Peptidase M23 domain-containing protein (Faecalitalea cylindroides), 531 residues
Amino acid sequence: MQPNKTYVASDGYEYFMCPMTEFKITQVENVGTHLGTYAVDFASGTAGYRAPYYAPATVKCIKTIPSYGEATWQTVNKVHCPNGYFGIVTFETVHDNTFNAYVGMVIKQGQQLGNMGDAGRASGVHLHIEFTQSANSSMGYNSYGVYTFNAVESYVDDTMFVDNTNIIDGKAGNWRKTSSSSSGSSSFDVSQLIQEDGIATMTVDAVQARLNSPTGTVVRKYNTGDEIRYYWKWVGNGHRYIVWKEGSNYILLAVSGTEKQGEEPWATFRAPDETPSEPEEPETPETPEEPAKEFPDSVKYKGIDISQWNGDVDVSGQEFVIIRAAFGTNTDETFLNNVEKCRKANIPFGVYLYDYALNDDQALEQPIYLYNLLKEHDIVPDLGVWFDMEDADHYKSKNGVLNKERCTKNCKIFCDYFKERGYYTGIYSSTSWFDAYIEDLGYPKWIADWGPVDNGTCQGDFSNQGVMHQYTSIPLDKDVMYVEMDVMKSNPIEVEEPEDKPEVPAFPELDVDAINSFYRNWAKIAERILG
Protein backbone atom coordinates (compact mmCIF):
# COMPACT_ATOMS: atom_id res chain seq x y z
CA MET A 1 0.00 0.00 0.00
CA GLN A 2 1.01 3.59 -0.33
CA PRO A 3 1.17 5.91 2.69
CA ASN A 4 -1.72 8.29 3.32
CA LYS A 5 -3.90 6.43 0.83
CA THR A 6 -7.22 4.78 1.64
CA TYR A 7 -8.57 1.60 0.06
CA VAL A 8 -12.34 1.42 0.39
CA ALA A 9 -14.77 -1.09 -1.15
CA SER A 10 -18.05 -0.11 -2.80
CA ASP A 11 -19.96 -0.87 0.41
CA GLY A 12 -17.96 1.78 2.27
CA TYR A 13 -15.87 -0.67 4.31
CA GLU A 14 -12.08 -0.69 4.03
CA TYR A 15 -9.99 -3.35 2.37
CA PHE A 16 -7.35 -4.79 4.70
CA MET A 17 -4.06 -3.91 3.02
CA CYS A 18 -0.43 -5.00 3.19
CA PRO A 19 1.12 -2.43 5.56
CA MET A 20 4.36 -2.09 3.54
CA THR A 21 5.30 -0.42 0.27
CA GLU A 22 7.68 -3.31 -0.51
CA PHE A 23 8.75 -6.51 1.17
CA LYS A 24 10.72 -9.70 1.05
CA ILE A 25 9.81 -12.57 3.37
CA THR A 26 12.68 -13.76 5.57
CA GLN A 27 10.82 -16.41 7.58
CA VAL A 28 7.53 -18.11 6.74
CA GLU A 29 4.95 -19.64 9.04
CA ASN A 30 5.35 -22.84 11.10
CA VAL A 31 9.16 -23.00 10.92
CA GLY A 32 12.00 -21.90 13.20
CA THR A 33 10.74 -19.39 15.76
CA HIS A 34 7.28 -19.55 14.16
CA LEU A 35 6.52 -23.20 14.93
CA GLY A 36 2.81 -23.81 15.35
CA THR A 37 1.90 -20.30 14.14
CA TYR A 38 1.02 -18.45 10.93
CA ALA A 39 3.45 -15.62 11.75
CA VAL A 40 5.64 -14.24 8.95
CA ASP A 41 8.74 -12.01 9.06
CA PHE A 42 8.98 -9.19 6.48
CA ALA A 43 12.07 -7.14 5.63
CA SER A 44 12.54 -4.30 3.16
CA GLY A 45 14.55 -4.54 -0.04
CA THR A 46 17.49 -2.79 1.62
CA ALA A 47 19.25 -4.86 4.28
CA GLY A 48 19.07 -3.24 7.71
CA TYR A 49 16.70 -0.49 6.59
CA ARG A 50 14.17 0.29 9.30
CA ALA A 51 11.39 0.78 6.80
CA PRO A 52 8.12 2.33 7.94
CA TYR A 53 4.90 0.34 7.83
CA TYR A 54 1.38 1.71 7.78
CA ALA A 55 -2.06 0.99 9.19
CA PRO A 56 -3.61 -1.64 6.88
CA ALA A 57 -7.04 -0.35 7.89
CA THR A 58 -8.25 2.00 10.58
CA VAL A 59 -7.07 0.24 13.73
CA LYS A 60 -6.97 0.61 17.49
CA CYS A 61 -4.15 -0.48 19.80
CA ILE A 62 -5.44 -2.90 22.45
CA LYS A 63 -2.19 -4.12 24.06
CA THR A 64 1.52 -3.23 24.13
CA ILE A 65 4.82 -4.78 25.23
CA PRO A 66 7.27 -1.88 24.74
CA SER A 67 10.43 -3.89 25.50
CA TYR A 68 9.73 -6.04 22.44
CA GLY A 69 8.44 -3.18 20.29
CA GLU A 70 5.23 -5.20 20.25
CA ALA A 71 1.61 -4.15 19.91
CA THR A 72 -1.72 -5.84 19.32
CA TRP A 73 -4.02 -3.99 16.94
CA GLN A 74 -7.65 -4.52 16.00
CA THR A 75 -9.65 -3.03 13.16
CA VAL A 76 -12.21 -0.48 14.31
CA ASN A 77 -14.75 -1.76 11.79
CA LYS A 78 -15.24 -4.83 9.66
CA VAL A 79 -12.86 -5.13 6.72
CA HIS A 80 -12.64 -7.09 3.46
CA CYS A 81 -9.88 -9.72 3.11
CA PRO A 82 -8.65 -11.54 -0.03
CA ASN A 83 -10.14 -14.90 1.00
CA GLY A 84 -13.63 -13.38 1.19
CA TYR A 85 -13.63 -12.87 4.95
CA PHE A 86 -15.60 -9.79 6.03
CA GLY A 87 -15.22 -8.94 9.70
CA ILE A 88 -12.86 -7.79 12.43
CA VAL A 89 -9.14 -8.54 12.07
CA THR A 90 -6.76 -8.65 15.05
CA PHE A 91 -3.00 -8.64 14.47
CA GLU A 92 0.34 -8.41 16.23
CA THR A 93 3.36 -6.32 15.16
CA VAL A 94 6.76 -6.88 16.80
CA HIS A 95 10.35 -5.46 16.90
CA ASP A 96 9.71 -1.70 16.44
CA ASN A 97 12.64 0.18 18.08
CA THR A 98 10.83 3.52 17.68
CA PHE A 99 7.86 2.14 19.59
CA ASN A 100 5.38 4.77 20.81
CA ALA A 101 2.06 2.93 20.68
CA TYR A 102 -0.29 2.99 23.65
CA VAL A 103 -3.54 1.24 24.47
CA GLY A 104 -6.46 3.16 22.99
CA MET A 105 -4.42 4.78 20.21
CA VAL A 106 -6.36 4.89 16.92
CA ILE A 107 -4.46 5.02 13.61
CA LYS A 108 -6.32 5.67 10.38
CA GLN A 109 -5.68 3.59 7.28
CA GLY A 110 -2.50 4.70 5.50
CA GLN A 111 -0.98 6.51 8.47
CA GLN A 112 2.33 5.25 9.82
CA LEU A 113 1.98 2.45 12.37
CA GLY A 114 5.66 1.83 13.14
CA ASN A 115 9.07 0.87 11.76
CA MET A 116 10.81 -2.41 11.10
CA GLY A 117 13.39 -3.06 13.79
CA ASP A 118 15.21 -5.54 15.97
CA ALA A 119 13.79 -4.84 19.44
CA GLY A 120 13.20 -7.89 21.61
CA ARG A 121 16.22 -9.96 20.59
CA ALA A 122 15.26 -10.08 16.92
CA SER A 123 17.67 -11.55 14.40
CA GLY A 124 18.08 -8.71 11.92
CA VAL A 125 15.81 -5.77 11.15
CA HIS A 126 12.31 -6.87 10.15
CA LEU A 127 8.60 -6.76 10.96
CA HIS A 128 7.11 -9.84 12.62
CA ILE A 129 3.38 -9.93 11.99
CA GLU A 130 0.57 -12.43 12.48
CA PHE A 131 -3.19 -12.26 12.07
CA THR A 132 -6.43 -13.77 13.27
CA GLN A 133 -9.61 -13.08 11.35
CA SER A 134 -11.56 -12.58 14.56
CA ALA A 135 -11.96 -10.19 17.48
CA ASN A 136 -10.24 -12.64 19.84
CA SER A 137 -7.04 -10.96 21.03
CA SER A 138 -6.09 -13.58 23.62
CA MET A 139 -2.49 -14.75 23.27
CA GLY A 140 -0.25 -17.27 24.98
CA TYR A 141 2.45 -19.88 24.51
CA ASN A 142 1.73 -22.88 22.30
CA SER A 143 3.13 -26.37 22.79
CA TYR A 144 6.38 -25.31 21.07
CA GLY A 145 6.87 -22.48 23.56
CA VAL A 146 6.08 -19.86 20.89
CA TYR A 147 4.00 -16.85 21.92
CA THR A 148 1.03 -16.53 19.57
CA PHE A 149 -2.71 -16.00 19.25
CA ASN A 150 -4.95 -18.51 20.99
CA ALA A 151 -7.62 -18.03 18.33
CA VAL A 152 -7.28 -19.76 14.97
CA GLU A 153 -4.80 -17.68 12.97
CA SER A 154 -5.16 -16.71 9.32
CA TYR A 155 -2.50 -16.84 6.60
CA VAL A 156 -1.01 -13.48 5.69
CA ASP A 157 -1.87 -13.88 2.00
CA ASP A 158 -5.48 -14.64 2.95
CA THR A 159 -5.67 -11.52 5.09
CA MET A 160 -4.02 -8.60 3.29
CA PHE A 161 -4.29 -7.21 -0.24
CA VAL A 162 -1.06 -6.13 -1.95
CA ASP A 163 -2.13 -3.18 -4.12
CA ASN A 164 0.75 -0.71 -4.65
CA THR A 165 3.23 -3.06 -2.94
CA ASN A 166 6.48 -4.17 -4.56
CA ILE A 167 6.88 -7.87 -3.73
CA ILE A 168 10.61 -8.66 -3.86
CA ASP A 169 10.30 -12.19 -2.47
CA GLY A 170 6.81 -13.42 -1.67
CA LYS A 171 7.74 -17.08 -0.99
CA ALA A 172 5.00 -18.56 -3.20
CA GLY A 173 2.23 -16.71 -1.41
CA ASN A 174 -1.15 -16.39 -3.11
CA TRP A 175 -0.93 -12.59 -3.18
CA ARG A 176 -4.02 -10.78 -4.44
CA LYS A 177 -5.05 -7.23 -5.22
CA THR A 178 -8.41 -5.66 -4.51
CA SER A 179 -9.28 -5.89 -8.21
CA SER A 180 -9.04 -9.70 -7.98
CA SER A 181 -10.77 -10.05 -4.62
CA SER A 182 -13.01 -13.05 -4.25
CA SER A 183 -15.53 -10.83 -2.39
CA GLY A 184 -16.88 -13.85 -0.60
CA SER A 185 -17.02 -16.17 -3.62
CA SER A 186 -14.60 -17.84 -6.02
CA SER A 187 -14.64 -17.68 -9.82
CA PHE A 188 -13.46 -21.29 -9.93
CA ASP A 189 -15.78 -23.64 -11.83
CA VAL A 190 -15.02 -27.29 -12.55
CA SER A 191 -16.33 -26.77 -16.09
CA GLN A 192 -13.25 -24.57 -16.68
CA LEU A 193 -10.80 -27.40 -15.89
CA ILE A 194 -8.43 -28.44 -18.67
CA GLN A 195 -7.61 -32.14 -18.62
CA GLU A 196 -3.89 -32.92 -18.30
CA ASP A 197 -2.35 -36.02 -16.71
CA GLY A 198 1.05 -35.18 -15.26
CA ILE A 199 3.47 -35.07 -12.36
CA ALA A 200 4.61 -31.74 -10.91
CA THR A 201 7.83 -31.39 -8.90
CA MET A 202 7.84 -28.28 -6.71
CA THR A 203 10.80 -25.88 -6.96
CA VAL A 204 9.71 -23.50 -4.17
CA ASP A 205 8.63 -24.00 -0.56
CA ALA A 206 5.43 -23.51 1.40
CA VAL A 207 2.93 -23.54 -1.47
CA GLN A 208 -0.57 -23.99 -0.09
CA ALA A 209 -2.98 -26.56 -1.53
CA ARG A 210 -6.58 -25.41 -1.20
CA LEU A 211 -9.94 -27.11 -1.08
CA ASN A 212 -12.45 -26.69 -3.96
CA SER A 213 -11.34 -23.13 -4.74
CA PRO A 214 -8.16 -21.08 -5.21
CA THR A 215 -9.16 -19.24 -2.04
CA GLY A 216 -10.55 -22.26 -0.18
CA THR A 217 -9.39 -23.84 3.05
CA VAL A 218 -5.68 -24.70 3.14
CA VAL A 219 -5.41 -28.48 3.42
CA ARG A 220 -1.63 -28.89 3.28
CA LYS A 221 1.63 -27.37 2.00
CA TYR A 222 4.17 -28.52 -0.55
CA ASN A 223 7.90 -27.79 -0.55
CA THR A 224 10.83 -28.05 -2.96
CA GLY A 225 11.19 -31.60 -4.28
CA ASP A 226 7.65 -32.72 -3.48
CA GLU A 227 5.99 -34.59 -6.36
CA ILE A 228 2.26 -34.34 -7.04
CA ARG A 229 0.21 -36.34 -9.52
CA TYR A 230 -2.46 -34.14 -11.10
CA TYR A 231 -5.19 -34.61 -13.71
CA TRP A 232 -6.33 -31.09 -14.63
CA LYS A 233 -5.00 -27.57 -14.83
CA TRP A 234 -6.76 -24.26 -14.28
CA VAL A 235 -5.79 -20.62 -14.80
CA GLY A 236 -7.14 -17.75 -12.72
CA ASN A 237 -6.85 -15.74 -9.52
CA GLY A 238 -3.40 -14.53 -10.61
CA HIS A 239 -1.84 -18.00 -10.92
CA ARG A 240 -1.69 -21.21 -12.90
CA TYR A 241 -2.92 -24.25 -10.96
CA ILE A 242 -2.73 -28.02 -11.07
CA VAL A 243 -5.83 -29.84 -9.86
CA TRP A 244 -6.65 -33.33 -8.63
CA LYS A 245 -9.45 -34.98 -6.65
CA GLU A 246 -9.44 -36.45 -3.17
CA GLY A 247 -12.74 -38.16 -2.57
CA SER A 248 -15.42 -35.76 -3.75
CA ASN A 249 -13.20 -32.70 -3.29
CA TYR A 250 -11.02 -30.85 -5.80
CA ILE A 251 -7.55 -29.82 -4.58
CA LEU A 252 -5.97 -26.75 -6.24
CA LEU A 253 -2.24 -26.01 -6.03
CA ALA A 254 -0.68 -22.90 -7.57
CA VAL A 255 2.39 -23.73 -9.68
CA SER A 256 3.33 -20.26 -10.92
CA GLY A 257 3.37 -16.69 -9.70
CA THR A 258 1.40 -15.42 -12.69
CA GLU A 259 -1.33 -16.51 -15.08
CA LYS A 260 1.05 -16.25 -18.04
CA GLN A 261 2.42 -19.57 -19.24
CA GLY A 262 6.16 -20.04 -18.69
CA GLU A 263 6.57 -17.05 -16.34
CA GLU A 264 7.57 -17.41 -12.66
CA PRO A 265 7.20 -21.21 -12.53
CA TRP A 266 7.06 -22.84 -9.11
CA ALA A 267 7.37 -26.40 -10.42
CA THR A 268 8.68 -28.58 -13.22
CA PHE A 269 6.45 -31.02 -15.07
CA ARG A 270 6.70 -34.42 -16.68
CA ALA A 271 4.41 -37.12 -17.98
CA PRO A 272 3.63 -40.07 -15.72
CA ASP A 273 5.78 -43.15 -16.17
CA GLU A 274 4.17 -45.65 -18.52
CA THR A 275 3.04 -48.79 -16.70
CA PRO A 276 1.36 -51.85 -18.16
CA SER A 277 -2.35 -51.65 -17.76
CA GLU A 278 -3.88 -54.16 -15.41
CA PRO A 279 -7.21 -55.77 -16.16
CA GLU A 280 -9.93 -54.01 -14.29
CA GLU A 281 -11.51 -55.92 -11.47
CA PRO A 282 -15.14 -55.53 -10.54
CA GLU A 283 -15.66 -52.75 -8.06
CA THR A 284 -16.59 -53.79 -4.57
CA PRO A 285 -18.59 -51.52 -2.32
CA GLU A 286 -16.39 -49.43 -0.07
CA THR A 287 -16.59 -50.11 3.62
CA PRO A 288 -17.74 -46.90 5.24
CA GLU A 289 -15.09 -45.34 7.42
CA GLU A 290 -15.78 -45.11 11.10
CA PRO A 291 -16.17 -41.51 12.22
CA ALA A 292 -13.06 -40.10 13.85
CA LYS A 293 -13.18 -40.28 17.63
CA GLU A 294 -13.38 -37.00 19.48
CA PHE A 295 -11.24 -38.39 22.33
CA PRO A 296 -8.91 -41.40 22.63
CA ASP A 297 -10.20 -44.52 24.39
CA SER A 298 -7.88 -43.85 27.33
CA VAL A 299 -9.95 -40.82 28.41
CA LYS A 300 -12.13 -41.44 31.47
CA TYR A 301 -13.33 -37.92 32.34
CA LYS A 302 -13.53 -34.51 30.67
CA GLY A 303 -13.25 -31.17 32.47
CA ILE A 304 -11.79 -27.67 32.56
CA ASP A 305 -9.28 -25.59 34.54
CA ILE A 306 -10.14 -22.02 35.51
CA SER A 307 -8.88 -18.91 37.25
CA GLN A 308 -9.91 -15.30 37.76
CA TRP A 309 -8.97 -14.59 34.13
CA ASN A 310 -11.95 -16.64 32.95
CA GLY A 311 -14.44 -14.50 34.85
CA ASP A 312 -17.64 -16.10 36.14
CA VAL A 313 -17.53 -19.57 34.57
CA ASP A 314 -20.58 -21.83 34.44
CA VAL A 315 -19.19 -25.15 35.66
CA SER A 316 -22.39 -27.13 35.18
CA GLY A 317 -21.99 -30.14 32.92
CA GLN A 318 -18.29 -30.56 33.69
CA GLU A 319 -17.06 -33.88 35.05
CA PHE A 320 -14.23 -32.19 36.94
CA VAL A 321 -12.67 -28.75 37.45
CA ILE A 322 -9.13 -27.73 38.43
CA ILE A 323 -9.14 -24.31 40.12
CA ARG A 324 -6.26 -21.87 40.50
CA ALA A 325 -5.91 -21.16 44.21
CA ALA A 326 -2.86 -18.92 44.23
CA PHE A 327 0.15 -17.53 42.38
CA GLY A 328 3.28 -17.10 44.47
CA THR A 329 1.82 -16.09 47.82
CA ASN A 330 -1.23 -14.33 46.39
CA THR A 331 -4.75 -15.78 46.38
CA ASP A 332 -6.66 -15.98 43.10
CA GLU A 333 -9.58 -13.55 43.36
CA THR A 334 -12.17 -16.13 42.25
CA PHE A 335 -10.75 -19.15 44.10
CA LEU A 336 -13.29 -19.42 46.91
CA ASN A 337 -16.23 -18.63 44.64
CA ASN A 338 -15.12 -21.29 42.16
CA VAL A 339 -14.78 -23.85 44.96
CA GLU A 340 -18.28 -23.01 46.18
CA LYS A 341 -19.74 -23.39 42.67
CA CYS A 342 -18.19 -26.84 42.33
CA ARG A 343 -19.44 -27.89 45.74
CA LYS A 344 -22.99 -26.77 44.97
CA ALA A 345 -22.94 -28.60 41.63
CA ASN A 346 -21.34 -31.68 43.25
CA ILE A 347 -18.41 -31.52 40.81
CA PRO A 348 -15.05 -32.97 41.92
CA PHE A 349 -12.30 -30.35 41.90
CA GLY A 350 -8.57 -29.95 42.37
CA VAL A 351 -6.47 -26.84 42.98
CA TYR A 352 -3.18 -25.47 41.69
CA LEU A 353 -0.59 -22.81 42.47
CA TYR A 354 1.41 -20.93 39.83
CA ASP A 355 5.13 -20.81 40.67
CA TYR A 356 6.98 -17.55 41.32
CA ALA A 357 9.83 -18.75 43.57
CA LEU A 358 13.40 -17.67 42.83
CA ASN A 359 15.18 -19.64 45.58
CA ASP A 360 14.68 -22.47 48.08
CA ASP A 361 13.18 -20.27 50.78
CA GLN A 362 10.56 -18.83 48.45
CA ALA A 363 9.91 -22.27 47.00
CA LEU A 364 8.99 -23.48 50.50
CA GLU A 365 6.89 -20.43 51.34
CA GLN A 366 4.53 -21.15 48.40
CA PRO A 367 3.23 -24.55 49.61
CA ILE A 368 3.05 -23.22 53.17
CA TYR A 369 0.87 -20.37 51.92
CA LEU A 370 -1.42 -22.69 49.96
CA TYR A 371 -1.62 -25.24 52.79
CA ASN A 372 -2.73 -22.54 55.24
CA LEU A 373 -5.23 -21.20 52.70
CA LEU A 374 -6.82 -24.63 52.33
CA LYS A 375 -6.86 -25.23 56.09
CA GLU A 376 -8.35 -21.81 56.81
CA HIS A 377 -11.33 -22.48 54.54
CA ASP A 378 -11.66 -26.19 55.33
CA ILE A 379 -10.94 -27.23 51.74
CA VAL A 380 -9.74 -30.73 50.91
CA PRO A 381 -9.51 -30.96 47.10
CA ASP A 382 -11.02 -34.09 45.56
CA LEU A 383 -8.43 -34.15 42.78
CA GLY A 384 -5.22 -33.16 44.47
CA VAL A 385 -2.95 -30.14 44.73
CA TRP A 386 -1.01 -29.22 41.59
CA PHE A 387 2.09 -27.13 40.96
CA ASP A 388 2.03 -25.00 37.80
CA MET A 389 5.58 -24.76 36.44
CA GLU A 390 6.04 -22.29 33.58
CA ASP A 391 7.41 -18.81 32.88
CA ALA A 392 4.65 -17.09 30.92
CA ASP A 393 5.64 -13.57 31.99
CA HIS A 394 9.42 -14.27 31.79
CA TYR A 395 9.74 -13.62 35.55
CA LYS A 396 12.17 -16.51 35.95
CA SER A 397 14.27 -15.62 32.92
CA LYS A 398 14.42 -11.94 33.90
CA ASN A 399 15.70 -12.97 37.33
CA GLY A 400 18.23 -15.45 35.95
CA VAL A 401 16.66 -18.64 37.34
CA LEU A 402 15.16 -20.20 34.21
CA ASN A 403 17.14 -23.43 34.36
CA LYS A 404 16.51 -27.11 34.98
CA GLU A 405 18.04 -27.14 38.46
CA ARG A 406 15.86 -24.30 39.81
CA CYS A 407 12.63 -25.44 38.15
CA THR A 408 13.11 -29.02 39.32
CA LYS A 409 13.90 -27.90 42.88
CA ASN A 410 10.77 -25.75 43.07
CA CYS A 411 8.65 -28.69 41.91
CA LYS A 412 10.24 -31.06 44.42
CA ILE A 413 9.90 -28.69 47.39
CA PHE A 414 6.21 -28.08 46.63
CA CYS A 415 5.25 -31.70 45.99
CA ASP A 416 7.32 -33.08 48.88
CA TYR A 417 5.59 -30.65 51.25
CA PHE A 418 2.07 -31.73 50.29
CA LYS A 419 2.93 -35.43 49.99
CA GLU A 420 4.28 -35.37 53.55
CA ARG A 421 0.91 -34.01 54.68
CA GLY A 422 -1.15 -36.68 52.95
CA TYR A 423 -2.22 -34.82 49.81
CA TYR A 424 -2.24 -36.19 46.30
CA THR A 425 0.07 -33.82 44.43
CA GLY A 426 1.63 -33.43 41.00
CA ILE A 427 3.15 -31.09 38.43
CA TYR A 428 1.55 -29.20 35.54
CA SER A 429 3.71 -28.14 32.58
CA SER A 430 3.98 -28.39 28.81
CA THR A 431 5.55 -31.34 27.04
CA SER A 432 8.54 -29.20 26.04
CA TRP A 433 9.07 -27.98 29.61
CA PHE A 434 8.97 -31.48 31.06
CA ASP A 435 11.77 -32.30 28.62
CA ALA A 436 13.84 -29.14 29.02
CA TYR A 437 13.35 -27.87 32.58
CA ILE A 438 11.95 -30.56 34.88
CA GLU A 439 13.72 -33.74 35.89
CA ASP A 440 11.49 -36.76 36.47
CA LEU A 441 10.65 -36.65 40.19
CA GLY A 442 8.18 -39.51 40.12
CA TYR A 443 5.19 -37.25 40.79
CA PRO A 444 2.04 -37.41 38.62
CA LYS A 445 2.09 -35.17 35.55
CA TRP A 446 -0.60 -32.95 34.11
CA ILE A 447 0.51 -32.48 30.49
CA ALA A 448 -0.23 -29.31 28.49
CA ASP A 449 -0.15 -29.96 24.76
CA TRP A 450 -2.51 -28.24 22.32
CA GLY A 451 -1.17 -29.88 19.16
CA PRO A 452 0.65 -28.10 16.31
CA VAL A 453 -2.13 -25.48 16.13
CA ASP A 454 -4.70 -25.01 18.87
CA ASN A 455 -8.04 -25.68 17.15
CA GLY A 456 -10.17 -26.65 20.12
CA THR A 457 -9.85 -30.42 19.63
CA CYS A 458 -7.98 -33.14 21.49
CA GLN A 459 -5.02 -33.90 19.22
CA GLY A 460 -3.14 -36.57 21.13
CA ASP A 461 -3.11 -39.34 23.72
CA PHE A 462 -0.75 -38.63 26.62
CA SER A 463 -1.97 -41.41 28.91
CA ASN A 464 1.51 -42.95 28.86
CA GLN A 465 3.02 -39.70 30.16
CA GLY A 466 0.56 -38.21 32.62
CA VAL A 467 -2.72 -38.55 34.47
CA MET A 468 -4.29 -35.47 32.87
CA HIS A 469 -3.93 -33.64 29.56
CA GLN A 470 -4.81 -30.00 28.90
CA TYR A 471 -5.62 -30.22 25.20
CA THR A 472 -6.90 -26.76 24.21
CA SER A 473 -7.51 -23.18 25.34
CA ILE A 474 -10.52 -22.59 23.07
CA PRO A 475 -12.74 -21.04 24.36
CA LEU A 476 -11.14 -21.82 27.74
CA ASP A 477 -8.71 -24.42 29.04
CA LYS A 478 -10.10 -27.93 28.62
CA ASP A 479 -8.69 -31.13 30.04
CA VAL A 480 -9.10 -34.89 30.04
CA MET A 481 -8.31 -37.34 32.83
CA TYR A 482 -6.86 -40.79 32.22
CA VAL A 483 -7.28 -42.29 35.72
CA GLU A 484 -10.15 -42.96 38.09
CA MET A 485 -10.80 -40.04 40.41
CA ASP A 486 -10.27 -42.14 43.53
CA VAL A 487 -6.59 -42.28 42.58
CA MET A 488 -6.32 -38.54 43.32
CA LYS A 489 -7.95 -38.69 46.74
CA SER A 490 -6.08 -36.90 49.54
CA ASN A 491 -5.98 -37.95 53.20
CA PRO A 492 -4.52 -34.93 55.01
CA ILE A 493 -2.52 -35.62 58.15
CA GLU A 494 -1.12 -33.25 60.73
CA VAL A 495 2.64 -32.88 60.67
CA GLU A 496 4.30 -31.69 63.82
CA GLU A 497 6.21 -28.53 63.07
CA PRO A 498 9.53 -27.99 64.90
CA GLU A 499 9.22 -25.54 67.77
CA ASP A 500 12.35 -23.64 66.79
CA LYS A 501 11.92 -23.72 63.06
CA PRO A 502 14.09 -21.24 61.16
CA GLU A 503 12.48 -18.03 60.06
CA VAL A 504 11.56 -18.07 56.39
CA PRO A 505 12.43 -14.81 54.60
CA ALA A 506 9.39 -12.99 53.35
CA PHE A 507 8.38 -13.76 49.80
CA PRO A 508 9.07 -10.66 47.68
CA GLU A 509 5.91 -8.71 47.01
CA LEU A 510 4.84 -9.35 43.43
CA ASP A 511 3.62 -6.48 41.28
CA VAL A 512 0.10 -7.89 41.13
CA ASP A 513 -1.23 -4.91 39.16
CA ALA A 514 1.39 -5.46 36.48
CA ILE A 515 0.63 -9.16 36.42
CA ASN A 516 -3.09 -8.48 36.12
CA SER A 517 -2.63 -6.06 33.24
CA PHE A 518 -0.51 -8.46 31.23
CA TYR A 519 -2.07 -11.82 32.16
CA ARG A 520 -2.77 -13.88 29.11
CA ASN A 521 -3.50 -17.50 28.20
CA TRP A 522 -0.67 -20.00 27.55
CA ALA A 523 -0.60 -23.74 28.19
CA LYS A 524 -2.41 -23.35 31.47
CA ILE A 525 -5.03 -20.73 32.21
CA ALA A 526 -7.27 -18.96 29.76
CA GLU A 527 -5.72 -15.56 30.45
CA ARG A 528 -2.06 -16.12 31.23
CA ILE A 529 0.47 -13.56 32.43
CA LEU A 530 2.04 -11.72 29.50
CA GLY A 531 5.63 -10.48 29.65
